[in-house]
Amino acid sequence: MAKLFIGIDLGGTNIKIGAFDSDLNIIGKTSAPTENAMSPDDVVKRICENTEALIKNISSTLDDVAAIGIGSPGPVNLEQGLIVAAPNLPLFRNVPLRQMIVDSLNKPVILENDANAACLGEFTLGAAKDVNDMVFFTLGTGIGGGIISNGRIVHGHKDAAAELGHIIIHPTGRLCGCGQKGCAEAYASAKSTVARAKEALEAGAESSLSEIKDITCKDIYNHAKAGDKLALEITEGTADALGLLCVNMLHTTGPEKIVFAGGVIAAGDFLLNQIQAAFDKHIWPMKKEPLEICFATLGQDAGIIGNAALAKQSCPTN
Amino acid sequence: MAKLFIGIDLGGTNIKIGAFDSDLNIIGKTSAPTENAMSPDDVVKRICENTEALIKNISSTLDDVAAIGIGSPGPVNLEQGLIVAAPNLPLFRNVPLRQMIVDSLNKPVILENDANAACLGEFTLGAAKDVNDMVFFTLGTGIGGGIISNGRIVHGHKDAAAELGHIIIHPTGRLCGCGQKGCAEAYASAKSTVARAKEALEAGAESSLSEIKDITCKDIYNHAKAGDKLALEITEGTADALGLLCVNMLHTTGPEKIVFAGGVIAAGDFLLNQIQAAFDKHIWPMKKEPLEICFATLGQDAGIIGNAALAKQSCPTN
Lengths: 318, 318
What we know:
Radius of gyration of chain A: 20 Å
Distance between the termini of chain A: 15 Å
Strand content of chain A: 15-25%
Number of helices of chain A: 9
Order of helices and strands of chain A: EEEHEEEEHEHEEEHHHHEHEH
Strand order of the largest sheet of chain A: 3-2-1-4-8
Oligomer: homodimer
Structural class of chain A: alpha/beta
Shape of chain A: globular
Number of strands of chain A: 13
Largest sheet of chain A: 5 strands, mixed
């Protein structure tokens, strides 16, 4: 049996686990739910039991496993292997997740934050597999990010890098949940996109959205595609913030590709074209920039692939 | 004789050259003027003649030189060793500077852009010598930048990284020389700081600056320190843009130190305190950020030191 690498993506609603061969082909995967009230011990138990079951299902044993990579919602302390806090797992405070899994499975374990792991997944096998420098944005309730520079994840001092949703683009603008004013996230996250639409409706804007009781980001994109003026303004506002982020990231780490992921990209080319138009509007005219803006291609598997890639990287002989 | 590393800083008004030992102690330095009308051949001749004279002055020969690092105003193509263009040397267009110096001196030559080289100087021996992740800003006519992530210069795809003056902080704001709207440079460069003061005076603002015929950035800082209200507003505007850059860079590459260099830092603690206050105003309140904002310490020598460090890095055995 060839060596296996395990990639684990720990989230607030479920744990995804994948087993990969040394070329990072997926051999098998599984998932199990997490619940808000679970203790760290319970979560680790669920991770390890499901990992062992997956390995058994693919007719392997723990002896075949070379290393395990696990991605966690942040903030995390990567050097110490700690989850400092996890927004959707309130009992997690300074949990030594890496060591707990080592103690249970007796295998090398690498911890990474979830956005970096998904970024590395897209870098390794997804939308950015052909480049050396990329930036990754996850568009969800908030906006997460990851940066790869010359093939390496940019962690920064004390793992502070890549809080890309909190780049300030309108210093006197909307208040962000983080306490700053004018973060990109305060305009372009799914939550902020919905909030801007609701505020406009409450202020009396006419729109086909007014017939919907509990507006979602998906509704806004669907109504914009159908030609509703307000919905279109709202999605253009989202794209404008994302286009500005692309300009600012191009001028910072100089990516060859910027990859957007997350539920919102289901809006498809409609959204991508709006982001590209906003980038083209804001970027300097002096030269054609060698930057491609695109959507992620690995979907829900980006995390397990990226974590398996981390596990593989941690084994120098592979 | 121990091995020597030569650091050369090519600028629009002069060429600085330093000779360093393998611990990067400076053994000797020299400089020679450049003129706007000089051809690439004339500049290379001047570089090489002065380098050879310096080496002779320190009782060494070219045989003692292990490698040469040279920093050039950009844009440069580092892989090919080309100066694509140089704002203050108009005859420079796609000049193969690296190869021309190799041909003349028959030594390994590394090319870097000038801001990255100065950044590496401060990283190696200056204000950021004790950290692994830094961001560097040069405040001059424009705003240049450099980023070091986990000990390595961030170059980006096609050397496009670290155009940090062109991060957009006010998307509907002042037009920058680059064609974008609202770049930090359009507020905080020496040129923009003076322009904002002149515009305010033309609009009728009262100020002790109105008595000066040709206002400089230095005048503005001096009058601000003396309590002039307009001058203070202008310097606060400059510091606000720089504080926003610090927030955005912290959220991007996660530096431990942000180092400001350039003529403007002669304004001293007055300016540094204003930048820190602007950072404190804009940064999220959720945690104390482990970031130090400070001024460069190497002055005019940062470039030659950084280029010598590059030369040393290029020799694996040193």
